[in-house]
Amino acid sequence: MTGLWAVLITTFLASAVEAIEMVTIVVGVGATRGWRSTLIGAASGFGVLAVVVAILGAALSVVPIGPLRLVIGALLLVFGLQWFRKGIMRVAARGLAGIGGQDPHETAEWTGPGMDWTAWFLSFKGVVLEGLEVAIIVVSFGAGANQLGAAVIGGVGAIIVVGGIGLALHQTVRRIPRSLLQLIVGVLLTTFGTFWALEGLGVAWPGADASIPGLLVLYGATALFYISLERNRALGLRPAA
Predict the structure, then answer these.
(1) Cα–Cα distance, 32 to 177 (Å, whole number)
(2) What is the DSSP letter of 4?
(3) pTM, to two decimals
(4) Comparing C-alpha atoms, which of 194, 196, 187 is closest to residue 216?
(5) Structural domain contains residue 239
(6) Residues 6 or more apart from 29 whose CB is under 8 A from it?
(7) In a domain, 28, yes or no
(8) Does residue 99 belong to any structural domain of this protein?
(9) Which of 22, 115, 226, 241 has its CA 20 to 30 A from that of 133?
(10) Dihedral (CA of 79, 81, 86, 87) sign
């Protein structure tokens, strides 16, 4: 019984780390570009994961995750840097106009009637990568301790709990000014993209996932620096010699 609880708790905590990254991407993209396409992308990602898990099963423990991290990380980095730049320019121009409501001067990233494929794609690949890592954690811990059932409960439970928290917070996220929200999402995507791409290249981050907050601080400080430069330029100011 002790072994069962140890596997369940360990799998839950390890899976929760991956689930937080997954939910952060989905909520950020949904709040910025719209929820319909984002949720369809997330559902598509879970559908693909279900098929992969059903076909490969225990063989997931030997799946090389590095190349997938490299590809998805590089793609996230491309989108993230675009939103990072746009967010800096919008915050520098608009400040925090619209906080607690909607700034009429800011337009949504997507207003078309059809599918927003950018939102779909970002949500889909975030769910696939992080979901696959959760599946590998579940299989590795469960098979190693001969407690696959407990590991599955821990992994699925982590996704449900973290997903529920993200769902509860999405209305709060929507009250953030769109310009600031775009910058925040740009920082997040750039951070995860950098982390996963370099991991895929074989870089060993100090502290593994614990390096992510450091990257967030670095990109956040960089954004503040460039916002200050842009506002000074717009006001006709120049830094002192």
Answers:
(1) 10
(2) H
(3) 0.70
(4) 187
(5) no
(6) 38, 119, 122, 123, 126, 185
(7) yes
(8) yes
(9) 115
(10) positive
Tens digit of each residue's pLDDT, the chain (241 residues): 556 777 788 788 888 888 888 888 898 888 888 888 999 999 999 999 888 888 776 666 666 777 878 887 888 888 888 888 888 888 887 665 534 444 444 455 545 667 888 889 889 988 988 888 888 888 777 766 677 778 888 888 999 999 888 888 877 776 777 778 888 888 988 988 898 888 888 888 888 778 888 999 999 999 999 888 887 776 655 554 4
| Gap between the Cα atoms of 181 and 187, Å rounded | 10
In a domain, residue 241? The reply is no
Q: Which of 119, 155, 123 is CA-nearest to residue 43?
A: 123
Token pair, residue 125, equals: 């690949």
Q: Which amino acid is at 210?
A: A
Residue 106: enclosing H or E segment and its boundaries? none
Total domains in the fold of the chain:
1
Enter the tokens of residue 107: 């337009």
In this structure, which amino acid lies at residue 16? A
Structural domain harbouring 165: 2-234
Q: Say which amino acid occupies 185.
A: V
